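Exercise 7. Predict the joint structure of the components listed below.
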Amino acid sequence: MAVLNDEQAMLKDMAAEWVRDRMPVTALRALYDHGGGGRSDSLGHDPAAWAEMAEMGWSGILVPQEYGGSDFGYLGMGLVLEELGRNLAASPLLSSALVAATALRLGGTSDQKARWFPAIADGSAIGTLAMEETSHHALEKTALAATASAGGWVLSGTKRAVQDGMIADFAILSARTSGAPGEREGLTLFLIETGADGLTREAMDQIDARRPAIYTLSDAAVGADAVLGEVGKGADLLDAIVDRANVGLAAEMLGNAAQAFETTLDYLKTRVQFDAIIGSFQALQHRAAQMFGELQLTRSAVEMALTAIDEGDADIPALSSLAKATAGETLHLISSQMVQLHGGIGMTHEHDAGLYLKRARVAEQCFGSTAWHRERWARLRGY
Amino acid sequence: MAVLNDEQAMLKDMAAEWVRDRMPVTALRALYDHGGGGRSDSLGHDPAAWAEMAEMGWSGILVPQEYGGSDFGYLGMGLVLEELGRNLAASPLLSSALVAATALRLGGTSDQKARWFPAIADGSAIGTLAMEETSHHALEKTALAATASAGGWVLSGTKRAVQDGMIADFAILSARTSGAPGEREGLTLFLIETGADGLTREAMDQIDARRPAIYTLSDAAVGADAVLGEVGKGADLLDAIVDRANVGLAAEMLGNAAQAFETTLDYLKTRVQFDAIIGSFQALQHRAAQMFGELQLTRSAVEMALTAIDEGDADIPALSSLAKATAGETLHLISSQMVQLHGGIGMTHEHDAGLYLKRARVAEQCFGSTAWHRERWARLRGY
Amino acid sequence: MTDAKAMEGQDFRQEVRAWLKANFPPSLTGISGLVFQSDVHAAAANSDFQLWRQRVQEKGWGVPTWPTRFGGADLGEAQVRVLADEMTAIGAFNPIRSFGTMMLGPTLLEFGNEAQKLEHLPPIAGHELRWCQGFSEPGAGSDLASLQTRAVDMGDHWLVNGQKIWTSGADQADWCFALVRTDTSRKQGGISFLLIDMKSPGVEARPIILISGSTHFCEVFFNDVKVPKDNLVGEVNQGWTIAKRLLQHERNSLSEVKAEITSLAPLAHRHVGTDALGRIDCPDLRARMVRNAMRHEAYMATVRRFGEEAKNGGSDSAVSTLKNLWSEIIQQRSELLVEILGGNGLGWAGSAYAADELEATRAWLHSKAFSIYGGSYEVQNNITAKRTLGLPG
Amino acid sequence: MTDAKAMEGQDFRQEVRAWLKANFPPSLTGISGLVFQSDVHAAAANSDFQLWRQRVQEKGWGVPTWPTRFGGADLGEAQVRVLADEMTAIGAFNPIRSFGTMMLGPTLLEFGNEAQKLEHLPPIAGHELRWCQGFSEPGAGSDLASLQTRAVDMGDHWLVNGQKIWTSGADQADWCFALVRTDTSRKQGGISFLLIDMKSPGVEARPIILISGSTHFCEVFFNDVKVPKDNLVGEVNQGWTIAKRLLQHERNSLSEVKAEITSLAPLAHRHVGTDALGRIDCPDLRARMVRNAMRHEAYMATVRRFGEEAKNGGSDSAVSTLKNLWSEIIQQRSELLVEILGGNGLGWAGSAYAADELEATRAWLHSKAFSIYGGSYEVQNNITAKRTLGLPG
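Solution:
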C-alpha cells in the first residue's frame, strides 16, 4: 500500500467495510440469469447500492468543492475502486464519478460544470464516455459525424460498448467534425443527454453481467454549447480523459486480482487431495509466490499512476499505460489461475472463479487492451 | 525420433558411439584457456578428430556420389549434427559439409563442383560461408563491393563472424555487384579461396571457443568463373543456402539441448539438499516436465524441416525458420536452467553448464536469431 | 513391410476407396463427427448422418479392430490406418465414435467376461446405447483413489450409494461405467469397476452449468441403487487397475485430436487492422500470436511424429507431456482469438454480437477445462516427471 | 512528524548539504561506489576516493547509525534518510560500504559482546580491514543447515576443520565470519558463529573461476585452524539464529540495489535498426524488450514503495519476493542486451569486439548468479510461499 494520510486511510477502511458487508460477490450474481447471461431486466448494477455510494460521497470525490464535491483526488478514488473491485461490485462509479467528472474537469465549460458537477456529486445524474466505434480502442477511427448546423451540431453514427450506457443520463461523445477516419485531427467532444431526440440505445449482454450499450445517433441535434474543449482538437483531450479512466480501471483491476489471489490462496490452504493440503505442493506454492510478486508490481504501478495524476506529472500518459498493462497482465494470469487451481468446481457458473475470469477479460480490453497499452508505452518511451 | 531406415539408424548409432568415445565435452575444453577464453593457439576445432569424421564419410553426406560423396541426404546429416551437438563437439562439419556443399549443390557451376566437391567429401578442403557484415543477420545490408574487371571481379569490404573462417580453404562470399545496402537486388555469390591475394583474416575470440573470423578484402581479384548462380540475383540463392544451414544448426542445437537436459536430469536425481534428492521437489519436477515438452516440439520441428529439404518441399523457408526458432527458444531455456539447477557449481568454468550456455547463445544468434526467424516465419505465414 | 503385405494393403485400400465412394453421403463432407457425437438431437435430426452411421455399423468399421461377433470388422492395425487415411482424404469421419467405443469398449475387451462383451459391445458398435463415465467425485477431482461412492455386496446384488461429478452427458446416457468402493480398509486396492443402468431406481443425473453455459457435465447421485452382481467387470477390488488402463485410452484419445490449424491472422487483419508494413497492427498481440502459432505447428508435427513412432513400435510414454502442450497451446489460442475480437469477443448472447463471435467466447471459456479434465495440468506434469523422466518421490 | 522535528530535519539537511559541498571530490560524481568496493586495487589507486573515504570515516557517516565509540555518528533513521537523499542528489556515494558494514556490523551490534564490538567495529567503520562470509559449503549450497565444517572445543581454543565455498573476496579478506558445526547431534541447533583471522595458519583461499571469468569467489580450506575462544559470537550453538538475522541483512541489501534504468532502446536502434514506422526493427525482440522494460519500471516503483512503507512501519516480509522479481528482470535484461548486440555480444576478449560489448557479455554471464546466490530463486519462492503467504508444509 501507498503511504496514506489519515483521511485517505479512513476512506479506504470505510470502502473496505461497506464492500464486504453490502457488496459480496453474490450481489453481482443477482445480475446474472440462471444460465450465466445477464438477466433480461438487468440495469447492470444495483441502483440502491449506487444511492448508498453517493450518500457516502464517493460520487463526488473528483468534483470540485464549489460544485458540491470533495475534490479528494485520484488516489482517493483509486482506493475506493480497488475495494469495489475486490468483490466485482458493479456500479457507475468509474464511468460517472471518474470518467465523466474528469472530462468536465479537463474540458468542461463553466455552464457544463455548473449543470452537471452537482448532479454527478450527489449521484442524481450518471455520466459516461461514448467513444468506441470498432471492436478495439482506436480514437482515430472515429467516424461518427458531427455537422455544423444553425443552432449547433447534428450528430449521426454509432458508438459501441458505452460503459453503463443504459443508465447514463449524459455522455461525453467523440465525433468527427473534419477529416477522415484514421486521422487524429478533426475530432471534437460533445456532451449529449441520452434522452436527446435521434439518440437510441441498445443493451449489450456482456459476459460480466454489466450492460454496456450501443448508441445509434440519427441526426441528433446538440447546441453549440455542447462542445468540450476545442472543435477539431478533441483527440488530445480525449487521450487525457482516457489516461485517467485507465488508471481508475487499473485500480479496480488491482482489487479484482488481489481478491482473486486471496480467495485462491484460501482454497490452497484448505483443499485436500492425495491426502495433503494442496497448498503444500511446491509447484503450487511457487506459482502462488509468483502471482504474489506480480501483484506487488501491479500495486506499485497503479499507485504511482494515481499519484502522478494528483501531482499533475507530465509523464501521466506513459504511467497510465504502464498501470493498465501491468494490471491487465497480472489480472489475466491470476484470474486464469483462479479457475485452474480450483479445478472442476472453478469451471462451474456456481463458483466465483468464472465471474472473476469474465470481468477480468472485459476490464483488460476496456479503454485499450494490455497489448494496446504496451505499444503506447513503447512509443512514448522510444522503443 | 523420426522413423529411420536401416542405413540412417546405423549412421546415427555410429555417430552416437563415436561422439561418446572420441568427443566428450573435455575435448571442447581443450580449446579453452585456463581463464575461460579460447586458447591463443586454437584453431577452434581438433584437426585429428575432423580427419576421423571425414574418414567415416560424414563430410561427404551431402556430396553427390559422382563426386565421391554418399548423397545421403539432410536427415542423415542432421542425425550426425545432433549427436555432435550432444557433446558440443567443435568441427567444420556444418560449415563445410553442409553449408558449403549446399551452396555448390544449389548454385555451383560444373567446374566448381568438380574442383571442390571431392575435396569437401574427403575432408581435404574446408569450405564456409562469408555473409554477415553487421552484428545481425541481414543479407540485404551487404556492402562488400564487387566491381567488374577485365578478367572477372575485384572485391573490397569486410565480413564478420565467418564460421570456421580461420581454417577454411575457400568461402562462399556474398558481395554487392549493384544497388545499395538495404536492397535485396544486386547481390552476387562468389567462391573465393582464402589464400587469395588481398584477403586477410583475423580470428575472433568467441565465448564458445570456436574461432570465427573477420575477413578483410582489399581489391581481391577473382575470375568470372568464381560466380555462383546469377550475377545480381544472389539473394534468393543465399536464402536457400541459409535455410539449409539453419536446419543443420537446429539439429546440432537439438543435440545441445537434449544433452543439457539429460545431464541436468541426472543431477536432479543425485544431488541432495534439505535431506532430499532435489529431483523430488515438485517445482523442479514440473520444470523438468516442461523442458521435456519443449524438447519434443523441437525434435519434431527439426525433423520435419530436415525431411522437407530431402523431399524438396516448397515450404522449406517457413519450416527452416520454425526449426531454428523452436530450437533457439528451447536451447535458451534449457541451457539457462542447466546453470540454474546446478546452482553454484553450474556458475563455475570448471563445470560443463557454462559451456552449454555459451554455445547456446552463439548458435541462437548464428544465421539469424530466434527473433529474426520468428519474424520471417510470421511474414511467410501472413501475420 | 514385405511386398506381399504391401500388396494386400493396396487391395484393401482399393476396396475402402470404392466403398466410401459408394456409401459416404456427400452432404457430410468436411463436417466434424464431434458435432453429432456431442449433440444427440443434431444426430437424430440429420438423415444423412443416420444413413452413414447405419452403413458403417453394418460394415463393422466404426470399431474396426473389434471381433466381428461384437460388431467390429476384425481388422489389423495396418488396415485401420488405411481406413483412416482414406476417410480423411475425402473428408469423411467415423460416425460411431463415442465414450463407448473409445474407452469402455477396449476396457471390456481386455477385462470383461464373454457375457458382458456380448451384452454390451454390439450396442456400442451399433451406437444404440450411450455410456457415461462415473469416476470423479466432489472430494476427489484429480485424486481418484480417494473416491467414496460405496458398493455393498448384498448377496444377490450390489447396493450403490454416493455421488459422482463431471460425468459427461450423464443426463442423456443409458449406462454408466463407474468406479465404486468395495473395501474401505484399502485405498486403490478397495475399488471395483461396475456397470450401472442409468434407468435403475435411485439414479439421478443433474446437469452442471459451466462458466461457458454448457450443461454437458452432470452430477450423478446414487441412492440405494441395486446393481446385478454380473455387472462387475474383472475381479472385486481390481477396479484401480482397470481404471488406469481406461484412462490411458482417454489420454490417448484426448491427445489424438488432430484438428487442422486455421490461422488467426486473417481475422486479426480484419479486426485489428494492418500497419504500413502489412503487419497485424498491434505488435504485442502479433508477437504472441506468432509464438502461439509456431508452437501449434510444432505441436501438430509432434502428434504426427508420435503417431509414426507408435506405428513403428515406439512407446506412448509421453502422452502426459503431449496433453499439457496441447492444453497450453489451445488455451492460449482461445485467449488470442477473444483478444483479436476485442470488445466483440466479450458477449454472452444477443444481437449485439455476431454468431461466430459468441461461439468464440463460449469456446474460450470452455477451453479452461482442458487443463483440468482428463488429469489436470499439475497431475500430468507429475506423471511426466515420475513416469517418463524417472524423477523420485 | 512534529514541526519541531521537521525543523531539526531541515537544520540537519542544511548541515549535510554544506558538508558534502565542501568535502565530496567532484571527480567522483556519478561513479558507483561498487567499483571500489569490489576492486581493492582500484580503490587504492584513486587518491580522491581515498580522501573521500577518510573524510566520511572521520565524520562517522559511513555507518551513520552506529554509536560514535564504534566509529559511527549515532544518527537516527530520519537523519540517515536525509544523508542518503543529499548524497544521491549530488551523485555522491557511501565509500565505506562493505560486507563488514552491511552484514557483520549489524550482527555484532546485536549479538556481539562489548570487547568484540570494540575490537572489530571501528576497523570496519574505518574500512581498514576486509571481511568475508564463510557460510556455504560444497555439499550445502542453499541448505545451510547441513554444513559440515567442524569447530572442536580444545579448552583454550576452537580447532576448525572443513571447507567453505562461494566466499566472496576471501583471497583479499583479512577476517572471515563463519558458520561452524559445534554439535553433530543436532542440525540447525549445532551451529555456531565464529570470527576467524584469515592469516591464521591452516587457512587457504583459492579463487574459483566463474563462467564470466570472474575470480571474485573463492574456496576456503580450514586445516587445523586454531581460533581463540573469544572469537565466538553469541552463545555456542546459537549460530543459526545469528545467521538468519545476518541473511536478512544480506537480502535487504541485495534487494536495495537502486540502479537507475538505462533504456536499451537507443542501443537497439543502433544495432538492430529502425523500421519505416520508427520502431526497433525486430518485432519479437522489441516486444520482449518492452515487456522487460515495463516490468523494470514497475519494479523500481515497487522498491520505492517498499522503502516508503518501511519508513512508515511496514513489514519487510516480501524481501524474497522482491529478490526474485529483481533477479528475473535483470537476468532478462542482460540477455536482451546481449541479444541486441547480436554477434558482437558473443566475444570473450580481443580486438574484434568493442570494450563495452565485452563488458555486456561478461555482465550477462555474471547475471546468471543472481538467482543462485543469497538464497536461490527456488529457496526464495519457498520462503515467500511459507512465510509471506502462510502456505503449509
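Discussion. The longest helix of chain B spans residues 234-270.
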